[in-house]
Amino acid sequence: MEMYLPYVWAGLIAAAVALYVILDGFDLGIGILFPFVRKHEDRDPMIGSIAPFWDGNETWLVLGGGGLWVAFPNAYAVIMPAMYLPVIVMLLALIFRGVSFEFREVAPAHHRRWDYAFAGGSIIAAFAQGVILGGLLQGVTVVDGRFAGGPFDWLTPFALMCGVGLVAGYALLGSTWLIMRTEGGLAEYSRRQARILLPVVLAFIAVVSLWTPLAIDRIAERWFSTPNIFLLWPVPLITALLALVVWRGIERKRDYAPFLASVGLFVLCYLGLAISTFPYLVPPSMTIVEAAAVPDSQIFTLIGTIFMLPVILGYTAFVYWTFLRGKVAPGEGYHAH
Asked: Which residues 6+ apart lie within 8 Å of 331 measured at CB?
């Protein structure tokens, strides 16, 4: 039992991060699209489309970060000093975004100011998350189980490219979410944005897919050695098919297909990154087993998680089931109480 505990926790944390990226991704995408919407009256239904969900979506970030701290303290002790600056920027941006979300409603005289704050917080948070991802993928310097690099090791062209790519990806999720949740001129505008964003996101996926194996030998060996290449070839194929579903859904004015297929794109990309880095939790030197806490600590926290996780999942499912039916009408927005 004890030998499987680190992998159980790794699976739970991976699932929490995936849920965060997907669920908070589309509402961050709404903020990213904010500056490009010229009509002020269109911004209210954009906010209204995510109002019941956005704060609950961030629960998964807390679970992922808290789980890493409890179950993998050795990895936490390396990742945090390696990524302090982008992590702090991300958290401050998320706080700023949350404040602006509420204040744009209760301070209508300063609507435009809070709109810019909401957009800025969303863009910076998304960019910082992409930089963290890129910084981890390229590797962290570890000596004797401790971070031995500098505070700006993450600041590389690859990490910055990942940051811009994730901003584009979240914007695609946001635009396809609006296709599903709104109608009229805003839905048509979102279709036009999604047509532009899909090729951009596919270009970033292609660049990352080529850059990582060319720059990192262990990733090239994982994907292109035999028999792995025969087992993993469906991943890029399914990614291409999902991209086709997104495009055809946009062109044929489908409501749900573009968003669901965009989520599928994120899931496939996430799976590809997991395949590239497994079994390392801190590439390229600290594995899941090496980073794990003592078994007693893992078991203790796992007991609490077993009870709380169904509650969180149940609450999330109930909220989406309740508020996803129907569309947000033009002129309808979020009203704080």
From this structure: 41, 44, 45
Q: Please state, in angstroms and rounded to a whole number, the distance separating the CA atoms of residues 96 and 83.
A: 20
Task: Extract the tokens encoding 282.
Answer: 């801190």
- Tokens coding 238: 């399914």
Q: Give the helix/strand (H/E) hosting 188.
A: helix 185-215
Task: Write the CA distances from 284 to 87, 216, 277, integer angstroms.
Answer: 20, 10, 8
Residues 114-146 have pLDDT tens digits of 888 889 999 999 999 999 999 998 888 888 878
Structure tokens at 207: 């660049």
Helix locations, 216-286, DSSP H:
217-224, 228-232, 234-251, 257-277
Residue 156 in 3-state DSSP? coil
- Angle, vertex CA 229, rays to CA 227 and CA 231, nearest 5: 75
- Which structure tokens are listed for 230? 């025969």
How far apart, in Å, are the Cα atoms of 119 and each of 7, 35, 303, 323? 37, 7, 39, 24
Confirm if 73 and 13 have CB atoms less than 8 A apart: no
Band the pLDDT of 331: cuts 50, 70, 90: low
Reading the block at residue 260, the tokens are: 């669901």
Residue 333 has pLDDT above 60, yes or no: no
Is-contact 223 209, C-beta < 8 A?
Answer: no
Residues 6 or more apart whose Cβ sits within 8 Å of residue 294: none
CA distance 93 to 24: 13
- Model confidence pTM above 0.85: yes
Calpha distance 56→337 (Å, rounded): 17
Q: ∠76-78-83 over CA atoms, to 5°?
A: 90
CA distance 262 to 174: 10
Please give the pLDDT value at position 85.
93
Residue 316, SS3?
Answer: helix
Amino acid identity, residue 227?
P
Residue 145 gets the label, from left (phi > 0), alpha (psi -120 to 50) or beta, of: left
